[in-house]
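Supplementary notes for students who missed Thursday's class. We covered one full example, reproduced here. Read the sequence, then the structure, then the short commentary at the end.
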Amino acid sequence: MADKDDPCDLLKGTPGYDYCRGDHQSGGHSGPGAGGNSLTDGATDNVQKLANSLIRKVKGLIAPDGEWAPKSTDSWVYHQFLWLGQHLAVAIFVCVVVVCALTAWQGAPRMRQMGASTGWTLAAVAGMASVPGVVMLLNRAVSAAFSAMFASDESTLFGAISKDMSSGADANPVGKLLMIAALVVALAVAALVFMTRQLGILVFVCMAPLVLASLARGGDMSAVKAWAGKLLGLMFAPFALLLLSPFVKLAQGSLAVDGVLLVAADVLMLRMIFHGVPYIGPKVARGARAFVENRTDSRLAHAVVRAGAPDVYERENSPARLRTIDTPGRALHQDRGVLLASYGITQRKRGSQLTTASTITQVRERADRTAALSRERKQAREAGQTQAANPPAPAVGSQRTAPAARRPGPRRAAPTPPSSGRTPNP
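Structure (token representation):
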């Protein structure tokens, strides 16, 4: 009797016996006595490796170890801006010294101004040389912290996904394929995050010498604060995904819930671009939304991209209103005004109004309300005209007689003053 532990023994003497006993390359079975894994196990391993590779790529794109920005002042691109910023700071300092010398008769105020300009000029020149190194170290710290919080062990988002791909309750071929699709979508959004963040960090690092040179005038920090706020916002944008951390524990053991968390991560990454990338962020996020809406009819996909890139009005020139953003040109104009003000140059302020596209959208959205108001105003106007043409008849006995006018009486003569009894002098 054939050995029950080896089903291939039942095929002895047939051409299928060698095929059954074959190794992994010949497609052998996975039971006892087989020379290798089955085709199913090989496909499962390949899917697992693909998922882990996608996870590494997503993590590397959201918070990469390297950056496009210059790592030192030896970079040719940064060196040009450094030369310009240093010479600009020195030129401002010379102008301050000349002005203080010409107005030295004012005494202590001019001496304080010259001392402040000297100190801030030295600080600006030193800061220009240290910006690339500080940004590089900060970027490495952000990357290490992101890896520790999202892919360090099984309690993190990507770690839980890797574990559920192999031992989850719904780790079947269909569930794994859906997870691979979700990871591919997340990879595309992460690539968009990578491009916008890296370009933004590069631009703001190269602008550092021009911004820091404004300190030489006397320590006006308005432009430096605006520049530092936007740069730090770009660098710390990946930590917006921390909002998903409390839900990772609930998602463990289920690929379906992991997929929901990945969709939420896509929404957060789009919001990260929308709010975190200066000037062009809203344009890029809304462009990604239009790309998805034009190429798919899925309501779920439309809802996801609309949550990541909401409907807004672009403001060129109008009073502030709810959910209104500035166009890239207007935002750049405002920040340029802050920078010029730190140099002592006043920029002409421009009013604001909605762009043509936003105005058309606003008119279409308010068309029903406008039509209803116009209709009610027309009815009220017609009712007023009808009432004026046909006035109501007065009621009987309701009309009062006007009182008769009083006639003026005779005037009284003025009283004669009494005589004193004396005879007037001739």
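Commentary. The chain has a mean pLDDT of 76. Residues 108-150 form the longest helix (43 residues). If anything here is unclear, bring it to office hours.
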